Amino acid sequence: MWVRLHLLLIMAIVSLTASAHSVVERDGYYEVRHSWRNDGKECSITLNISTGLYDYFCNNREHLAYAYQFNDGELPPNYYSFMLSEHDRPIMHAVAQEFSRFALTERDRISLALTFVQSLPYAYDTDSKGKEEYVRYPVETLVDGCGDCEDKVALLVALLYEMDIDFVLLVLPEHMALGVHCDEVEADRYLWFQGKKYYYLETTMPNWQIGQIPQDYYAAEMEAIPVDDTPSILVKGVRFESQATLVSEKAPCTLKVDLHNLGPGKVTEVRLHVRVIELGKYNRLLAEEYYPLRNMQEGEQRTETLSFKSLIKENSVLEVELTGAEIAPQVSTLEIQYSKTRY
Predict the structure, then answer these.
(1) Tens digit of pLDDT for each residue in 169-184?
(2) Is the same domain home to 82 and 180?
(3) Which residue segment(s) compose the domain that 185 sits in?
(4) Dihedral pair phi/psi, residue 139, rounded to 5°
(5) How far apart are CA 167 and CA 187, in angstroms?
(6) How many CB atoms lie under 10 A from the CB of residue 19?
(7) Could you tell me which of 138, 116, 166 has the C-alpha nearest to residue 54?
(8) pTM of the entire structure?
(9) What is the mean pLDDT of the chain?
(10) Are residues 106 and 237 in the same domain?
């Protein structure tokens, strides 16, 4: 099992001002200890995080939407959902629950989570990972004990999500932050989004309060982006072959579809709806098949191979629709290469 969790949060009045982070590797897990200040109190948390879980995220950089961050073109609609991976959900949930024990109001819970994330040192990817760009998953940030604005925002997203706090990502030029909706917060500056006020959360360093915006970003344009927890399956490729046959006979066809569940979470009731259509004035349907597929776990990649028979006409196209209980339908269309050897 990846999840091995022991958590202890202690709060007491002390005079310390600096945060402290330590990691000790033991038998199959990292013992992570971190202390920080919140509202004049010293807070301390201890986590036991499986080395297998940490290694999983470190070694699977193509997992979820991470791989598509650096590709040209349109990003998948749930690109930021990697922040809500189901694999680290038990840890984030346990931390959020522990925070909620000590912070009774919603505003206090937000403040406790915010000061915790702020207290983790800011680190440029080139210094901490030796790479120009490296996006940490929340568990990585917990173990590494540092991160840049994207990393720290991802960790705060995971915690606020588990505390059922209403938030949005705030994307600024060369920066990322969070906006939080809370009726208990009063601040002069806020972002009006979908009929609600969202107050700025700065994660990079300590002492930034809820609703307080650093001077560098005070006049910057902010784009609010909700984090979608609906899983998404990406159709990475569609390949089709048919064997030549008489023009009046159905030809044997093979269809291969490359799928990748970007997550977060498992997708059930997956089905492919395949149609061969002759384009024309009335778009004649030449073949139609339905194929139920096995459930897909988060991060899973696989190729589905399907066989069927269909008439193949000169203006034929293949239409493949992917549906599932937790995903929006996707349609891929492929022009069929007509073989003149048919007679």
Answers:
(1) 998 988 999 999 999 9
(2) yes
(3) 7-225
(4) -65, -35
(5) 16
(6) 19
(7) 138
(8) 0.83
(9) 86
(10) no
